[in-house]
From TrEMBL, chain A:
Similarity comment: family membership: Belongs to the RRS1 family.
Protein's cellular compartments: Nucleus
Location, primary (coarse class): nucleus
Low complexity bias spans: 207-217
Keyword terms: Nucleus, Ribosome biogenesis
Region named Disordered: 139-228, 289-312
Basic and acidic residues: compositionally biased ranges: 139-150, 161-182, 196-206
Pfam family, one: RRS1
Function noted in UniProt: Involved in ribosomal large subunit assembly.
UniProt name for this protein: Ribosome biogenesis regulatory protein
Cellular component annotations (GO), alphabetically ordered: nucleus
Single GO BP term: ribosome biogenesis
TrEMBL record, chain B:
Regions of compositional bias (Basic residues) in chain numbering: 1-13
Protein known as: Ribosome production factor 2 homolog
Bias kind Acidic residues: ranges: 322-332
Source species: Tetrapyrgos nigripes
Domain Brix intervals: 28-257
Amino acid sequence: MDVSGILASHNAKLDSLKVEKETPLDVDAGYLTVTDPNPIDEESYNSNLEEHLQNLARDGVQTLLASLFTLPTLPSPDGPLAQLSAPKTHLPRAKPLPKPKPLTKWEQFAKAKGIQKTKRDKRVWDEERQEWVNRWGKEGKNKEKEDQWIHEVPANADVDYDPRKAARDERKSRVAKNEKQHLANLARAQGSGLNQRDERKQEIERTLASSRTSTASMGKFDKKLEGEKKLRGVKRKFQPNETSVESEAKASLALLSKMESDSKKMRRDGPVPDKSVLNVRKAVRFASKGQGGVALGRQAAAVKGKKGGRKK
Amino acid sequence: MLRTIKPKNARSKRALEAREPKEIEDPRTAIFVKGTHTGEVLNGVMKDLMALKRPNAISFSKKNVIRPFDDPTSASGSTSNQSLEFWSSKNDATLFAIGQSTKKRPNGLTFVRMYDGKVLDMIEVAVENYISMADIKSAKSTPGHKPLMHFGSELFDTHPRFMQLKSMLMSFFNGEEIESICLTGLEYVISVTCAPTPASLNTASSSTESTALPKVHIRTYTTKLLSSGTRIPRVELVNMGPSIDLSLRRHTPPDPELLKQAMKRPKLKKTDVEKGLGKKRKNMEVDEMGDLRGRVHVGKQDLGKLQTRKMKGLKGGKFEADDGEEDGEEEDGAKKRRTS
């Protein structure tokens, strides 16, 4: 088979694509740029500017495309993706290089053990309901225990064992633990500006300062021990003795409403039961010797039965 | 100046993290600002440049008093500098195109580049001939695609001012480092060429201030790829516009210290070293398993002075022939070592 003819025609086609210049064009494929280091031809520039510019550009683009189309490609739904090489020209950055962040405690451990990070999906398959449920978030599976309508309570549980509350507390404690670990990581990343000893020292000084001002006169008339720092900016404010009726009334009403409101409550008890003198919970506990209401009931039934038996 | 924002929810935290510096940077956002007086020409130029730069372009609608080339120590100069820094940090933009037309400098367009919140360098050009995109009736390219760039003149490699202009225009249009590009998406090319170099520029002795720098022509063409029978298509260009002729006016070169910081590149990752990038090191190679192996060259060892384990019990033997005894003892010692 004579292939020389085909080869010749192929070469002829390739020749038509070749661009001949005195100095070869400098192609920077990484930035899709081509620079033509040849000096501008004055005659063609002066004769027809636009045509000259267009010809120059065409030659440059042809060379650039030649190099781009010879790059290795990956198929993609939009067409062939050419894998670009690293750019040759260096352009200045817009922002400084990021500083490498120190690894967190877990990341160090994982790196040492070779544990890979696996990404978990937001949805998880629930066998019982035969559908995809959120792992967390709205109607998430992590709140399943709290939202149940019935709970199994173990026999040795407390009188006031609230399974819903227990489940919720467990979840909240996990969140709190994670937050604590996160803060500890951040503090470690910031660089231990203060090591443990100095941190403890600062803490002690802070408590000392607050205890010194915890007197009626804000520590002004206390004898200062040697070695104690001088406290600054501590003054006790006195309201004027005579105020107008309106302001006094307003202050009292505000105080009352603050006392009644729930916003600054220290202990968040539930709704207070009817204000009987007897604390039923404590009474049951005392009477049953810690066994609980059910045990008390059993005892009472046994006594009744015995009594009834005896009477007969 | 700008208060540091502490994120209050996850969304603002993500937005803040998106603005943090990254190893491979996002494309630069450009702000187009109008000075106290612009003309029809400048308005058109800025509108067209913004169209080419979309979507990474912000246009300020109001006119602002800004004089970028004033001395930064003077009152008006420092406020201009402060304005640029404030706009840059507020909009997370690192490029500016300021249009200002005065009687002394008509149709002036200033390109400013920022690094780390500070002005890196500025170039002022005068727009001489301008034909807008709307005036050239042809099909336009899709906005958002990356342009090809072509620089035609040897001055772009040799003359410092033209090198700065080339770097600035590359940062403006094409500064993003990308890994791959869809070959069908190469739609248009921005061609920047100079007028013929006057002879006086070539001689090294002549001072640069006295000679006039040649004009710069910016043309934008859409590429038409024609099949050529081989894998590489033949390209034909169609003028798309805008077509702008500029002449260089003032400029501020970048501060060398700041430039050195800005040009720092991230350290080459191991994968790149394996590929063969980085300095060619003769004692490192990647073997068949893909591991990076190095050779450490130790000097020639004097085996006579080799440090071995000292057996105190073997040290005695001064009253008998040394060589014979030593051999025997060494054998004994060796045997002892093996059994232990």
